[in-house]
Design goal:
The complex is a heterodimer. By secondary structure, chain A is of the alpha/beta class. Helix content of chain A is 50%, strand content 10%. Chain A has a domain of 162 residues: Rossmann fold (3-Layer(aba) Sandwich), CATH 3.40.50.11900. Chain B has a 5-stranded mixed sheet with strand order 3-2-1-4-5. In chain B, strands 8-7-6-9 form a 4-stranded mixed sheet. In chain B, β7 and β8 form a beta hairpin. In chain B, α3 packs across α9, α4 packs parallel to α6 and α7 crosses α8. The mean pLDDT of chain B is 89. The chains are: A alpha/beta, B alpha/beta. At the A-B interface, α13 and α14 of A face α3 and β8 of B.
Chain lengths: 402, 282
Amino acid sequence: MSRTATSVTKVTVLEKIRQAVIDRPAQIAAAKKQGQKVVGWLNYFVPEELLLALDVIPVRVGVGGDEQLVDIGGRYISTKNCVFVRAAVGLLGEKKDPYTPLLDLLAVDASCLQVFRLAEVVKYYFKYETLILGVPRSFTAPEGQAYFRHELQDFTAALEKFSGRKLEQAKLKAAIELLAKIRESLQYLYQYQSQDYANLNWRDVFEIVHAGFYLDRAEYLKLLQELIAELKELPEDKSKIPGTEPRVFISGSQLSPGDVKLINIIEDLGGKIVGDDLWTGLASYLDIQIAAPTVDALADGYLARVPHAALPYLNISTDSRIKKLKELLGRFRAQAVIDHTLRYCDPYTFKAGETKDILNNEGFPFLEIHTEYASSDIEAIRTRVEAFLELVRTRNDVAGGI
Amino acid sequence: MSDTEVKISGNVVAGVDVGSLAAKSVVIVDGKVAGYGLIPSGFNSEETGKSVLQHALNSAGIPREAVKYIVATGYGRISADYANKTVTEISCHARGANFLYPSVRTIIDIGGQDCKAIRLDSSGNVVDFAMNDKCAAGTGRFLEVMSNVFKVKLEDLGDLALSADSLVPMSSTCTVFVESETISLIARGEKPANIQAGIHHAIANRISGLFSRVGIESDVFFSGGVAKNKGMRKSIQEVLKVNIVEPTFDPQLTGALGAAAIAWKNAVREGVCQEQQPALQK
């Protein structure tokens, strides 16, 4: 998790969250000794509600920014896979971080086929027990919805067998309510950080989202609610003058915990990040409506939300991902979009062109940054971002332009 | 006041562009270009920047202490304590091209280690841009390698390509692959002129990919050191099917000129210099 938040830290609960993340691996290890099982999961469609209802501990797997893990992963999986996938293979193979040695099962949804391949590779080479959740390509078709319901039923049955517990409706209901409150709290924090004079910035909130990958979810909700209460009491931070920094929205695939190269560059150059639609950021928490405490309702709810770009939804005029992106740009008062994709994350890279055309027409400058974890392109990216911020400053007359 | 007295009395600004292969500087006095310098980049960006600035000042006959505002650009801008402000070369090329030719809406810039497609508005503000990937394929460094292979001077590569009677297609723009492919082609008896024409076409094709991302609109200006290569200009015109504005000022100095134009604007805005009419002149 990033420890280099740039806001003036006077928010005490933020420090409590950071401490809780430090303490978490020991807590999980103790729970394992008491017989609890730990499920690491990857990607976008694994419903944590199921894991919580079956009393297993969910850990969202994956880190970014570590070129050494990419090299290690590249020994086992093709180097034409994105650096996140290669780093995740390296992470799961090395087991030198605090979480992977604790995993009893790796659950992976197949929305991204590279991540699906990752599950096969770590099962073969590192003997992980894995569980795959199929995701339909035609996710808006009734056949696709029926397929996902069926897949999630099978997934649930396999998890019941693994955990030695039967799914109870009351526990599922409680888990659905808990996660709904977490999503609501995170959306509140995103909205809060985008305001002038906020006491948290986007980077802080992104760090808080990543804390939720690991922390006990009930404890996490308590901390989020405590944080929100504190923020409501704190006086506004008047140390920064609004309107002096270009307001930048980060779109694209993902920035995992530790992948701070682009964030550092934007902030060093005076850009203010005001929001994101990354699947390691806000996107995972948007628009999930679960109508009933049943597996079918979970399947319907997860499938109906903003789609992962790896799912080939090509009707651009009705693409809810684009529609949501435009809505978020307005909500966070963004002036420009930086679209971040990792090398060989093809689904997101392919969609950048059409997204750019649409947003340009809506008046938003759009910069594509295509990178990996190595530091060799830092100066080239810096030049692109700096020129882009100059463009936004001039266009929006931010602090007099260049 | 005499011309020399005007130059010394004030209203002097400069742009310094320290690139990967060459450093450039342009001096503006009362909104008009008064001098310029062009030297190879050294290992120390800071010293290179100061040195090329001095060359430009010497050419204009202006003492260093007369300079009121300096904008640094290029890769060396991160080590430019001598400058009042730093601006990217993308913005500077746009301002420089606009200063020279206000009708320009698209710039192709090929420098020492990168190439850029820049779209700009009537005020010289960047509207959109795209840059090549991080490798040096199709840049000045690439052509430098080729000039070594053909044992000709870098500045003669363009004329070599113009003497071609046909074009040898190249399978790559990777510097390493093209170098070895070229050696094989020479061994097979292909004419160097035809190979070089093929290389120019391969670079032009690569550049056309940048324009698929930002679009292209007339007038088109070719800036950067490689713009002096007439063979490259011809290939770009053929591949992109556009007319390129004929330069009346050294295209390698465009970034430094734009930096000087931004320096002038800032100096006037901050009251360090007094605007003359017309504001800026070639």
